[in-house]
Amino acid sequence: MSAGQTRRLSVPATDEGIKAALDALERLWAEQGVSRAVTWPVEVSLDEVLANVVHHGLEGRGEAARVELELQFEPGDPPRCEVRVADDGPAFDPLAAAAPDTSLGVDERPIGGLGIELVKRLMDEVQYERRDGRNHLRLVRRLLPMEH
Amino acid sequence: MEIGDEQVGETRVIAPRGRVDSVSSGELERHLMARLDAGARRVVIDLAGVDYISSAGLRVLLVAAKRLKPPQGALVLCGLGPSVRTVLELAGFMSLFAVEPAREQALARASGSSAP
């Protein structure tokens, strides 16, 4: 069995940074030979979390603000993926927000809050912690197909 | 992101490919809105080439649905792979959209909708 892989990267708090992070995740899957059929929930969740940080937490701070990422892959049956995201924006626990009402019609449907709700439903574990003046989010998923 | 775009009879078919995420969804939104501003009223969005969609992409679909409400307009989604379908289901979006398996059925449904 091959050993686990850990990638650390620091990206700017911009759209380019989000793209760089998602590209890095895609490269990691390709190297490990894992199918997108089981990895997409991690990619969607990372996009949601980073969009939140870049467009809200670090809004307006541009290139100077960085987001630190740790992407961890453990082979196994099933393989396991852990993603850690840290930023030094204002304290903000995205998990504390109320769940959106997903039963409303086209005209009434708000879109805010939907991203984090998806993360909670797609990942096995999601944890937030404020530590040393930074926001830390930890996402874990066993790489299995989604069940309905 | 690549965006396929063709006119089939009275229907405009838009086919994004790749990731529909918080970065690329802006491009899809500009593309769709330009078509709607130019007068497109029957639209099929073919998602067969989409790897996955996040909430930023769902927002674009919602904006398009609001602008293409029947009877003046028609919006039909098709080609949903497992990842796209799961995200739409988790978000409670399936009930908001007309969804068909493939492009052929979607075109029939879009053109069969009550005329503007």
Beta strand % of chain A:
25-35%
- Determine the fraction of residues in helical runs of chain A and give it as a percent range: 25-40%
Distance between the termini of chain B: 32 Å
Please give the domain count of chain B.
1
At the first level of CATH, the class of chain B is: Alpha Beta
The dominant shape of chain B is globular
- The proportion of strand residues of chain B reads 25-35%
- Class derived from helix and strand content of chain B: alpha/beta
What features would you describe in this structure?
The complex is a heterodimer of chains A (148) and B (116). Chain A is of the alpha+beta class and 148 residues long. Chain A has helices at residues 15-32, 36-57, 114-122; strands spanning 5-12, 66-74, 80-87, 125-131, 134-142. In chain A, strands 1-2-3-5-4 form a 5-stranded antiparallel β-sheet, with helices on one face. In chain A, helix 1 (15-32) packs antiparallel against helix 2 (36-57) and helix 2 packs antiparallel against helix 3. Chain B has 116 residues and is an alpha/beta fold. Chain B contains 4 helices and 6 strands; from the N terminus they run ββαββαβαβα. In chain B, strands 1, 2, 3, 4, 5 and 6 form a 6-stranded mixed β-sheet that branches. In chain B, strand 1 (2-8) and strand 2 form a beta hairpin. Chain B is globular, with a radius of gyration of 13 Å. The chains are: A alpha+beta (148), B alpha/beta (116). At the A-B interface, helix 1, helix 2 and helix 3 of A face strand 4, helix 2 and helix 3 of B.
Any descriptors?
heterodimer; A: 148 residues; alpha+beta; Heat Shock Protein 90; 5-stranded antiparallel beta sheet; globular; B: 116 residues; alpha/beta; Transcription Regulator spoIIAA; 6-stranded mixed beta sheet
Which helices and strands, and how do they pair?
The complex is a heterodimer of chains A (about 150) and B (about 120).
Chain A: E1 5-12, H1 15-32, H2 36-57, E2 66-74, E3 80-87, H3 114-122, E4 125-131, E5 134-142
Antiparallel strand pairs in A: 1-2, 2-3, 3-5, 4-5
Helix pairs in contact in A: 1-2, 2-3
Chain B: E1 2-8, E2 11-20, H1 25-37, E3 42-46, E4 50-53, H2 55-67, E5 74-78, H3 82-90, E6 98-100, H4 103-112
Parallel strand pairs in B: 2-3, 2-4, 3-5, 5-6
Antiparallel strand pairs in B: 1-2
